[in-house]
Fold these 2 entries.
Entry 1:
Amino acid sequence: MSAVQIRRGAIVARMAYDYRRPLRNQLFLLPPSIADWLPEDHLVWFVLDVVAMVDLSSFHAHHRNDGAGRRAYDPEMMVALLVYAYCRGLRSSRKIEAACRADLAFRAICADVVPDHIAIARFRADHEEAFRVVFIDILALCAKAGLVSLGTIAIDGTKIATDAALDVNRSESVIAAEVEAILTEAGVADSAVQPGLGGELPDDLARPGSRLGRLRAALGEIEADKAARAAKEQERATRLDEDASKGTRPRGRAPTDPAEGLARAEADVTALSVRADNAANPLAKLEAISELQRAQERLASAVEAAEAAPEPEDLQANTTDPESRIMKTALGWVQGFNAQAAVNANQVVVAAAVTQDHNDVAQLVPMMDAVVANATAAGIDADVGTVLGDAGYWSETNATADGPDRLIATTKDWKQRKAAREMGTTSGPPPDGASTLEAMEHRLRTEEGAAAYGQRSCTVEPVFGQIKENRGIRRFMRRGLAAAESEWALVCATGNVLKLFGYARGRTLSATLGAT
């Protein structure tokens, strides 16, 4: 080692590292301000401005104003807290409470007033209906910013899990037996109570929302499902009979249920018999009789299939969340609800709903009505142009119902694209005499129809992706249909806040609204 290297090493050894070290015990010369610690274009300031423009009268009406009792947390603060938390994908009341202590943006909302998790959870539960008003008011702000055009509206549904497990679904007989066991236990306990000895009923009877209450609710849901299925079967049978009496054969894909297949085969035989009797000429009569013979063979096969089919499984209900349903998703099965959204070209949610139905077919007309109602409530003076729906919404009833123009896929999107490639595009109006199905398929294969329907996947589907992937919202926090509806309204409202924030590009809310 040279002399120079030795001298340099000695110098380094004697020098201290010149780091910028934190002075954690240093007092501030002036009182600190949170406003100085967050940039002016931070989301939290935007959320506070949004909430300041929302009608909170329904929240205030929930509290006393006579000075009696313990003071409640300011509803404006609580609404802003939940709106900002949902924008960030934070929904657990315990995690929100922790963020109010440790996260500077949350401190900007609540300052030195930190609500505990019980107060946060109770506030969310106590104002289910009020959060739907928040959705409308935020939609109105988006409209003022020019984000709510109604020329194209895409409707779709996504399955959201609930706070209940799949393995607690029970059949009617099992639930009824458990109810009987609880009541028997209660009777034994009641007869054993002696005055002055402090005997108490079991928790299942003493507590509201107990297991007994949930079991009874589950039985009620099973009875409601039975009634709904019976009504649907009666409606289908009536429609088949009416069509068959006119010589109209059943349409659509063959049902997988043997009982439905039998009813369809019987209606087909009746319809072909009517056609044979009313044939205009001998050749037509001969063709009808030939087709009738084949239909009778299919009927015989349907009778055999119905007789050989096993007894249908008992209906089940979830004993934790009786109003939830087993839903099929691309990744398997979940216990949850079917969440619907109607979205415009700017990916703003114009209407949101939650249903217990497994499929979407019965949701198109209610969602179209909700779009019109919400637009009116938000002060949006515009007509709905074209409504887009995938094959899950297809039915002749949906295609011909009153309301806006609509394009509904009649089959899965990939099959539709394949048919367009093989059959080519069309133009002009549907041919005379085309059925409702044929007319819709014709429109979808025109250049204009294909271009319009192509907008569906890039409007509503990204909204679900942003909710589930970006914000991690895949499960409702509370049980019950009403709670799910309220939370879905808040989820969609906060999604609209994020759209409005992105559109603002660093401007304040007032500047964003004033720029339109």
Entry 2:
Amino acid sequence: MELNYRFEDNGSEETVLLLHGFLADMSSMETAGAHLWEHFNILLVDLPGFGDTKAGGDYRMDDVSDAIAALISSRWGAVHIIGYSMGGRVAVSLLASYPGMIKSAVLESASPGISDPTARKARQKLDRERADSILTDYVSFIDGWERMGLFQSQDSVEEDQKARQRENRLAQKPAGAAESLINYGTGIQQSYWQDLPEISIPVLLLAGEKDGKFVTINQKMEELLPNGRLEIIPGAGHNIHMEAADKFGIMVLEFLIGG
């Protein structure tokens, strides 16, 4: 699996890897890295199925984290990581499988997967249904996705920002998006809950106040991570780096510099 990536060398000794969410590509994380550029080198990656990374075939979350680990070791050795939503799940897999490669982590609206077998099967069914909908009528799927309660907190976001987000979603390839759900979606990926107590590096957990599901998930994660700290962002929903960009940037920068 060959990952498409972009490296911004700012002359720093430290590099931050940014991993995007579902229905997006690396460009969607440029805002998340805006406050970091003067202090860190920036590594942006297109996750499998999105942007210009083409995976294909039968692969799983372990294969995704293996590919990212190979990229990191090829040039940087170890990095800091910021993962949003789907990218946060990938980041957790890296923390569990390659702890020596990650210096610190920011997990934004992320989860370690689903531990309950019945709930996992139900999510696999939902992921398959969503994949079918994507392949049937991608634009209609995006329309429905944007109406989800998960994103209703974006009503106050400026229209040009929401337009850029929608443009980025529509630019993705339906086959790749569907493939990502089947191969490393929340339902099919393994659970990493049991690995959290073994992750010793500093971890900043971020959840939006209006994103109740992920507030609950991250409260449980904080209890299990030895060096984890949860910050709940007032007024924000799922996409914190867009809905509360300045607060997100300052908080992440302070954590990475101080952590």
